[in-house]
Amino acid sequence: MTAAEDTRVGGVSVMWRKALSSAFVAFCAVSVLIALVPLFFVAFFVVTQGLNSLNAAFFTQMPKPVGEIGGGMANAIVGTLIVSGLAALMAVPIGIVSGVYMSEYSGTRFASLVRFAADTLNGVPSIVVGVFAYGVAVLPFKQFSAFAGGFALGVMMIPIIARTTEELLLLVPGSMREGALALGATRARAVFSVVVPAALPGIVTGVVLALARIAGETAPLLFTSFNNRFFNTDLRQPIATLTVQVFTYAISPYDDWHRQAWAGALVLVTIVLICSLLARVATRRLERMHARG
Amino acid sequence: MTRKDLGFRIATGIFGAVLVLIVASIGYELVRQSMLSIQKFGLSFWRTEIWDPVAGEFGALPFIWGTLYSSIVALLIATPIALGIAVFISELCPGWLRQPLVFLTELLAAIPSIVYGLWGIFVLVPAIRALEVSMPAVLRRLPIFSGPPLGVGMLSAAVILAVMVIPFTSSVSREVLKSVPPAQREAAYALGATRFEAIRAALFYARTGIVGAIMLGFGRALGETMAVTMVIGNNPRVSLSLFAPQYTMAAVIANEFTEAADDLYLAALVEIGLVLFIITLTVNSLSRLLIWSMTRSATAVAASEPTPEPAAEPA
Asked: Model's pTM, two decimal places?
């Protein structure tokens, strides 16, 4: 065997293979950079444009009529809190208990069906959830309302919480449940006094993340909670939300409204960032707890 | 099982049933509300190119075209990048960099659609317009680059969709790559493979799951609403041009639903929603099936015996 043959495998030289390999590694590293570019640019513009426009009035004042400079989104901020709160009221109990069902009876057929439903619901486009909520919660009452908005967001929130709860409960060591059962506890007692509390920090994290996600939703609110130029706490009336307000202002032709849209975006992104960081810290602590056993 | 335990099972099961009920009633409600349009237009609804609510003409072809076109172009941009990220994070990067990178890519998924849209209108669209203006005239004669350089249009929508899809595809691909037995790579290295060849073997082993990850991204792109609505130009027209303002199914519902004055108009919009629901349902189910079959078979292999299947391909 000559040296020339030695360096060739299937007619390809080692040098070429090494070069290809390096090119591939470089490509992968560059992809990470490419993905970080939009993240950086979005963050940069939201922070610089948003900080320029964010002031006390944004949080305390109502929107001004068209043409008048100034005003704020006080009503929309309260609206987002109300609508997200309604969603959580609906989704937290349903999500957690159905998550308990999926993990406790995880081998059964019905649990698989519930899991399939949760995954399906998770993939339904938000705009379609809006159309559904319009049919169920707006049409019968002939009225856009905060309720309808909360219902739409609740529908989106349920599967996220259910799946998170299920996954976390499955992480709880089986010996804890068995211990409780061996002491004579009923299944319900074992689950709610032992298994769920063990996973509770994680479940709370999941709820916070789900809240952050739905608070940033716009599409399901466009024709459920609609929008409102006035301050409103009546749940049967249309209500303003940050996201819908940002949308309305962004597509308007007025500079001052664009300015406020950026301020609204900054508030939204801040909420999301704080929730993600909180969740990350909480998960870290959970992991350390598990590591210690 | 005691009586009390049965009660617990039924009580929690009822909550689970709520999820099933919601999915079923979404389907039912969409069909019920779109009946008027389904009966009036039948299948021609999806072949007609004219959308003129004032004249009472409803054809959904431009929307389904816009949705598919924007999602496919977005996928073409996003898939190589997403796979590159997944490989970099799971195979190449030093340990200390892994968590921060995972966090940053996840942040990309956490930014609300409306914020992407706002950024799209004021930053991305002008940038794309500049790109379109500076394109050499020779290329501009091609059908995919024809039309005036407006900035708003298919290209802007596809780029923003790609950004939004990347985190989903890359995080699932990462999971899938994690489920490839280390012996696959070790065997490749033992045969003298370069890094690329070893990773290629791992990717090939994981191909089912990776196709699933790409489809998951596709499902996300199809249903994405706000950001696309704000940059695609909202013009119901079938065009091959990346520069042309077009429209998507989700966008037309978002824009026109509250303006739909008569019942037929509303029913036509709901029918678009119904089809969007069916398409995303199919794509998502298929993608989950692929990912599931991949991760399941991988854990089965890892659990049963240490010897993996024969190497996927000679390195």
From this structure: 0.91
